[in-house]
Amino acid sequence: MFTRVVQLLVGLALFGAGCAVMIEAGIGLDPWTVFAEGISNRTGLGIGWVVNLTGFLVLLAWIPLRQRPGIGTVANILLVGTAIQLTLPLLSTPEPWLPRVGMFLAGTLLVGIASGIYLGARWGAGPRDGLMTGLHERFGWPIWASRLGVEATVLLVGWLLGGTVGLGTVLFAVLIGPIVHVSVPLFDRRRSSRRARTPDEPPVESDAPAVGLSAPGT
């Protein structure tokens, strides 16, 4: 259990750091971070604190959807935005456009790997992914339709508020799914436990809720 908790915390911290790298690149962001940046621009709150606050408000939407948060859900709300806020002052945006693209790609890769680390700990999905699965389970909407509807809405609102939409938005949408698809099995604690068992040992039961594989937003 201790190892899983450490894996969760490390994964979430790296996830936030990767988001900060993408933000600092300045070429576009994923929909939820565009939304957070737009609110940050209008309110003056640090974007990391907005990410935390947004995560908490999204969690409230779980109540009518009858979703139950796990340890990972709460940790996600507390740590991702905090890691963003602490990492941003350590970064600087390069002037040339090509290094900025490279910086964004590095951030996307870090977010994808970090997603595999924290999802692989199996302590529950983040608040935004839980919103998608909640809509699916409560109303029968397809997961893809739930995600598309919600993320298109937050992207539009974030853009209208001044969030950065651009090449990075497209790159993230295209790349994050395949990266997470590869990284989750590498860090999956349940898979590791099964590999470690001998043929005569009974299956290892996990007390962590199963998490869906999807392109995570912050």
From TrEMBL:
Pfam families xref list: DUF6198 (PF19700)
Region annotation Disordered: where it falls in the sequence: 192-218
Transmembrane segments: 44-63, 70-91, 97-120, 141-161, 167-187
Keyword Transferase: no
Keyword annotations of the record: Membrane, Transmembrane, Transmembrane helix
Coiled-coil ranges per UniProt: none
InterPro entries linked to this entry: YczE/YyaS-like
PANTHER family in the record: INTEGRAL MEMBRANE PROTEIN, INTEGRAL MEMBRANE PROTEIN-RELATED
Protein name in the entry: Membrane protein
Protein species of origin: Microbacterium imperiale
Species lineage: Bacteria, Bacillati, Actinomycetota, Actinomycetes, Micrococcales
